[in-house]
Design goal:
Mean pLDDT: 92
Structural class: alpha/beta
Order of helices and strands: EHEEHEHEHEEEEEHEHEHHEHEHHHHHEH
CATH architecture of the largest domain: 3-Layer(aba) Sandwich
CATH superfamily of the largest domain: HUPs
Bound molecules: adenosine-5'-triphosphate, magnesium ion
CATH class of the largest domain: Alpha Beta
Largest sheet: 9 strands, mixed
Number of helices: 15
Oligomer: single chain
Number of strands: 15
CATH topology of the largest domain: Rossmann fold
Distance between the termini: 37 Å
Helix content: 40-55%
Shape: elongated
């Protein structure tokens, strides 16, 4: 195992106990995400070291793990300066022009002092390449760490995903539809260290198997940042049909969303989720005006986090593209919201009216029934989604 990956932690809270929790959770998450790789992990309060063979492959996985500020690939060579030179020239980007050498001597018995070593290696690089020295503003900073077991050389820091390690903040339940917004909301919440589980409301036969697979595909993409995603699929047909039969057109969406909130809140309590998360964005559609939000949210006291509430659609799309959910989100399969959409949904719903309409049918029994029949998916088999993409 010739390569050493060094990890600097992301946003750490200063409290000692938190720091320990942060580092331990990050270690567990890394172990889980890299469980198929042959690695050795060592850590201290400031950095983590991963010994491995195929550094590039490991780094691309590490870049999706929250709680990592930056990643450095250090290459191990013999303490012989000729070997150090050879490796340095290999990793210095030929498109860049200037460099400086920084030497750290962890092995204090090494006979050459740091400054002198930097000068000697710098001289050899000058002689064997077209690079020029610039000690004040170099394009490349070549760092050399001389240790007992060998010398490590590295050039750049690779940016990590930032945020907090998934799970340090506890658990949340994400209302995950097949749209663009909710996967982005999930990603942003995972980034704050929340262990996200997902809930999807389906209404077969009004919604298709493809619509469900699309949601599972989105969950599998989020799972690359988490490794712990579950999708709880709620059978929602009877409730939607009852709303359709018993409530005026313009209130259908408002009441449907109140039912979703009720179910999600009850289930959150059952699985120990402290918050609900969804992809609502202020003013995006009739059910997301402030009046609608008040009316819908009034069915529960559980905090509802709306990470994209204040983003423009184009800003949300930018993130969706970056995290690779966009192409799946825009597939055409109908969601239960789109199937039962009235022409003119109310934009200033009144809570009293909702309560009255809801008395037209026994929604409590229907909700209990739906919760009792939730199916949970934990394994995302790619074969099932392939034909979608
Ligand atoms: P889009 O990205 O096109 O806006 P959307 O899924 O966000 O689609 P909305 O009608 O805006 O659709 O719904 C608002 C939020 O409600 C979603 O972001 C999601 O969190 C939740 N939601 C809507 N439909 C469902 C569903 N079938 N299952 C789970 N959550 C849903
Ligand atoms: Mg939306």
């Amino acid at each position: 195992m010739n390569n050493l990956i060094m990890i600097k932690y992301g946003e750490l809270t200063t409290k000692k106990a938190n720091r320990k929790l942060f580092i331990n959770t990050l270690t567990q998450n890394i172990e889980k995400m890299l469980s198929n790789e042959n690695i050795e992990i060592r850590k201290d309060q400031v950095r983590m070291f991963i010994k491995c063979k195929n550094a590039n492959k490991i780094v691309s996985k590490l870049q999706k793990i929250f709680g990592i500020h930056s990643i450095v690939i250090a290459y191990k060579v013999n303490n012989n300066i000729e070997d150090v030179l050879k490796k340095s020239l290999e990793i210095m980007d030929k498109n860049k022009q200037t460099f400086k050498v920084v030497t750290k001597r962890a092995d204090k018995n090494y006979p050459v002092h740091s400054m002198e070593y930097s000068r000697r290696l710098g001289g050899l690089i000058l002689k064997n390449s077209n690079f020029k020295v610039d000690v004040h503003n170099p394009d490349i900073t070549l760092t050399v760490e001389i240790r007992n077991e060998g010398t490590f050389v590295y050039v750049d820091e690779i940016k990590g995903a930032g945020g907090y390690p998934v799970s340090v903040a506890g658990k949340g339940l994400l209302m995950l539809s097949g749209g663009i917004d909710s996967p982005v909301a999930g990603y942003l919440t995972l980034k704050r260290g929340v262990n996200v589980e997902c809930m999807y409301f389906e209404s077969p036969p009004h919604t298709s198997k493809e619509a469900q697979n699309k949601v599972l595909k989105l969950a599998s993409i989020l799972n690359e940042y988490s490794g712990k995603i579950k999708v709880h699929i709620v059978p929602f047909t009877k409730i939607q049909e009852a709303i359709f039969k018993n409530c005026p057109d313009i209130y259908m969406i408002t009441i449907m969303r109140r039912m979703m909130y009720r179910i999600a809140a009850l289930y959150a309590e059952k699985i120990g989720a402290k918050i609900l998360i969804n992809g609502e964005s202020i003013g995006q559609v009739a059910s997301q005006t402030l009046d609608s939000m008040v009316c819908i949210n009034s069915v529960t006291n559980i905090p509802v986090i709306r990470p994209v509430a204040c983003f423009d659609k184009l800003e949300i799309i930018d993130i969706a593209k970056k995290i690779n959910t966009y192409e799946t989100s825009i597939l055409p399969y109908e969601d239960c919201c789109t199937v039962f959409v009235p022409k003119h949904p109310v934009i200033k719903p009144e809570i009293e009216k909702c309560i009255n309409y809801e008395q037209n049918f026994d929604y409590q029994t229907l909700i209990e029934d739906a919760i009792n029949n939730i199916k949970t998916v934990t394994n995302f088999k790619e074969e099932e989604f392939q034909d979608l993409l």
